[in-house]
Fold each of these.
Amino acid sequence: MTGEKKGLPLTDLQIDALREAGNIGAGNAGIALSQMVKKKVDLSVPRATILPLASVPELVGGPETPVAGIYLKILGDCSGSILMLLERESAWSLAGLMVKGDLAGEDETLVKRSALRETGSILSGAYLNALGQLTNLFFKPSVPVFAMDMAGAIMDHVLVNLAASEDFVMVVETDFQVSGVKIRGHLVLFPDIGTLTIILERLGVPIE
Amino acid sequence: MNELENVGVAELKVSNNSVVMASFGMGSCVAVAMFDPLKKVGGLAHVMLPESRGKDKGRNPAKFADTAVEFLVDELVRKGARQKGIRCKIVGGSQMFEMPGSSGQDGDSEGKPKPKHIGARNVEAVKQALGGLGIPLVGEDTGGNYGRTVRFNTSTGELEISSIYHGRTVI
């Protein structure tokens, strides 16, 4: 009947609707990525879960895992955030696909970081576009910010912006994988409570 | 003996056994480690936000700096520490992302001038609460723009900090 955790009672139907929304968003992001790297991109079935704050970093392999994180705030009709995470090696592999050839003396690390930030921005934008069309809402992504560090430390930042009054957060998470190369990453949508309410209403399964 | 107890975001633990408590991958959060060296009682709080502003108080004191400091002291005293003997070390409070312009939501709704980032505010709030209770701060590694893991030995008060970019230190 209810979501598996206290705090936010969601029905199975509502969880399914969120997973489907995540699927459509990540599907669009996957297409964008596939076009950028000219390779096939596989997506996992999204997870839509309500997690206690302490266990959010487990989503991406634990709080000490070195990752590249590209974070965008969602503005417009809704608020929340969207985060793309790549394990460190995956991040450099992906950047390597984007940044090729002679950089004419430019700092390679700087260029690659910038390429990753841009990729995160494009994928998140594609995700939000699809989600916006599905729900007939306007989602405006903020300027992306980039960090490469421990997953937990990056998550802190996201949680602080979301969880001022809640001990649980809703996450919709999709794993993606670029075939042929070792690139794996995660797209994580963190809708805040108000956004969750609006999205579920638009999907026809409102919170009672 | 050296059992590792994980203290996650917005959690708090105390012990009068010799255990090592750890908080992994902290960014803007602050680890507040307190111990009474004589009674060998120690505890760790993984603080997430500066102040509870009254709400949430009963629900999860470990989440907010102001309530966590008070709660941690109470819990230590309950485990046998003497309030006058308690020492404190703090770690964390970094800024992981360079935010373009004012980030809005980090700010205060009362329209104060451009606020400090949340990590710095967490550190400030912890120090203020410590001052209020007269608990001496005997070690600190805060700020910067990188993530940290801490391991805290509750009986010795030794606090080990590790990070990807800055190696290991002990305070």
Note: Residues 12-202 of chain A form a domain with the Chemotaxis protein chec fold (CATH 3.40.1550.10).
Amino acid sequence: MAKIKIDKDRCKGCYLCVVNCPNALIKISESMNVKGVKAAYFSGSSKCTGCAMCAVICPDCGITVFK
Amino acid sequence: MKNTKKAVKKTGKISAGHSKDTAFESGLAFARPESLREAENHYCAGCGHGIIHRLICEVIDEFKIREKVIAVAPVGCAVIAYDYWDFDVAEAAHGRTPAVATGIKRVRPGSIVFTYQGDGDLAAIGTAEIIHTANRGENITVIFVNNGVYGMTGGQMAPTTLAGQKTSTTIHGRSLRREGYPLKVLEMLAVLPGTKYLERVSVHSSHEVLRAKRAIKKAFQMQIENKGFSMVEVLSMCPTYWGMPPIQAADRIKNEVSTFYPLGVIKSC
């Protein structure tokens, strides 16, 4: 099963990963990270195909993809 | 948090000494390229520089040319690119990046030299340098990041700012009558016989980022094969000085900027 890991404290909150996930599996957290930003988080769904579309658009290289 | 750190560490190890197959077996499908340092970048949220930095590192790792690469960093938002890249980087005076790259390439012809420039650096103060470097057909690669404003100094109008775009020096929007037309650098360079490969790409969506990577790879390939001057223009977002959220800035490139600056190969020979 594919999955991603988002480095919460690297996230600057641009949410480009959120709009680029083809299955809309990335959500915006309610709590803030160390930067005072509501970071993106992976919803943990089994629908993730590991396509890495989120990781290639992340300007901060904060997403690691496992297949 | 601990797990994430572990994953990143693991990543570094895998890309450092193991083949792609080993990485696949361990389940890793995408991770930070080896040439990109762990340091967090200073760019604003949604800025395209971070993506372009990474793409260059990925290409360098794939070609395995990290020991041979010498980058020349510009003046502009990417002025401290050497803090993020784990290979040799020289710093040039504003706009003089292609001139410095020419010198490095001529003294060390075996090295792979590329410049990384913004639109204020390349299309304004460095216009003379880029035109003459291209005209001489220097065997270097230029990565030109076009976001249409001067990001570092406070969002002033650049030569590439679109007509009607509001910046801190054109508060009612750029007027063609007063400030002239936006400069299409690639089309201008395409008429020079010294240029061999010119392509315009964008980083506003994942698919475009993958296309941008292919273009950057091709540009480096041209240099490795000693074919001559290659340049990739990357349309990039500047949400801060466009005055909009990052997602909207990405849409602006898709709907507005890329209609004026058409994407694709401008010249290839």
Note: Residues 1-31 of chain B form one domain.
